[in-house]
Design goal:
CATH superfamily of one domain: Metal-dependent hydrolases
Structural class: alpha/beta
Strand content: 5-15%
Number of helices: 12
Order of helices and strands: HEHEHEEHHHHHEHEHHEEH
Shape: globular
Radius of gyration: 19 Å
Number of strands: 8
CATH class of one domain: Alpha Beta
CATH topology of one domain: TIM Barrel
Distance between the termini: 42 Å
Strand order of the largest sheet: 7-6-5-4-3-2-1-8
CATH architecture of one domain: Alpha-Beta Barrel
């Protein structure tokens, strides 16, 4: 998607209906990671839909947060500082586990130093992946992708460019993943810096934040129980119990999505965990809209209270 197409997409969102109730959407992404909208556009959309609170949770980066905090001063929207860590637990059978950090402090030096190292290793990985794609005859360079979205790009950005350049070969981003850059595919490179669940939770706690296990039901039901138990053993605080699987997960019906959320809500209650929720809005690559999933402000206030009690933060 080029800049003009991105702007046209944003314009199409201007007629979305206003939300009928006060809601906190605690899972969203901007162009700082793999989202379609800039931080400003995302916030403007949240204001248009009259969200009460919004967490910006870009993958392994907090670069959108300083602008977001400044831009929303004197605006009727509460910005929750967030991040989404991409973790790996291969010995336990989980190739990728996502941990949300909510109510973090993006200025924390321990966090920032770790993110710098993650970024360097991400750049190295993407460079190697692009070199593999070049060896298969694809016309794409690291500089080309970076010029489009910045150096903190990921596989979806690479895939988007290939879809644009080779429309006869790739109809969707998913086509690129399934044929070249998905796990085990010819151009795939494993992560070079593998952050573990326990480290991610520890980093989040270091910043005064709450750690929530994102979309746990992207795994099989029997694996979810094991993953949640491990997450709790590592010190996790919450589960993302409100998530639009029927939109964001391939082949999941609305009924199945409701079943998955009910399963995670039951686990949260059994293990005395807090509950979070959000749309996981990325933009054009997923049909879910910002604010179409989230939690009530009553639940949101309970999250804030837990944070204040545990970290003595006013």
């Amino acid at each position: 998607m080029n800049e003009q197409e991105r702007k046209e997409y944003f314009q199409k969102l201007q007629n979305l209906p206003i939300l009928s109730e006060e809601l906190a959407d605690l899972h969203s992404h901007t162009t700082t990671s793999d989202g379609t909208l800039t931080p400003k556009e995302l916030i403007d959309l949240a204001l248009q839909r009259r969200l009460s609170a919004l967490a910006i949770t870009d993958h392994d980066t907090v670069d959108a947060l300083p602008f977001a905090i400044d831009y929303t001063k004197n605006k009727p929207l509460l910005i929750v500082q967030g991040i989404e860590f991409s973790c790996e637990e291969l010995p336990r059978g989980f190739e990728e586990v996502h941990i949300l950090g909510l109510f973090i402090d993006h200025r924390n030096e321990v966090l920032r130093k770790r993110l710098v190292h993650l970024l360097e290793k991400r750049k190295e990985r993407e460079q190697k992946m692009i070199e593999k794609l070049q060896s298969f005859g694809f016309d794409i360079t690291f500089e080309e992708v970076a010029a489009r979205v910045g150096v903190a790009f990921g596989r979806p950005h690479i895939a988007k460019i290939l879809v644009e350049k080779y429309p006869q070969q790739f109809k969707t981003v998913q086509d690129v993943f399934e044929n070249y850059i998905g796990s085990g595919k010819p151009a795939y490179i494993p992560r070079l810096d593998k952050i573990k669940v326990k480290e991610a939770i520890s980093l989040i706690h270091t910043t005064g934040g709450i750690a929530s296990l994102a979309h746990p039901c992207l795994y099989k039901d029997e694996d979810v129980v094991e993953l949640v138990s491990y997450f709790v053993a590592c010190g996790g605080d919450a589960l993302e119990t409100f998530y639009p699987y029927y939109v964001n997960a391939k082949g999941v019906s609305l009924e199945e999505s409701q079943h998955k959320n009910a399963l995670v809500q039951k686990l949260a209650q059994e293990k005395s965990l807090l509950q979070t929720g959000g749309s996981d809005f990325h933009g054009i690559i997923r049909p879910i809209m910002l604010g179409d999933c989230g939690i009530s402000m009553e639940m949101f206030e309970r999250l804030k209270e837990r944070r204040m009690n545990e970290f003595k933060i006013p």
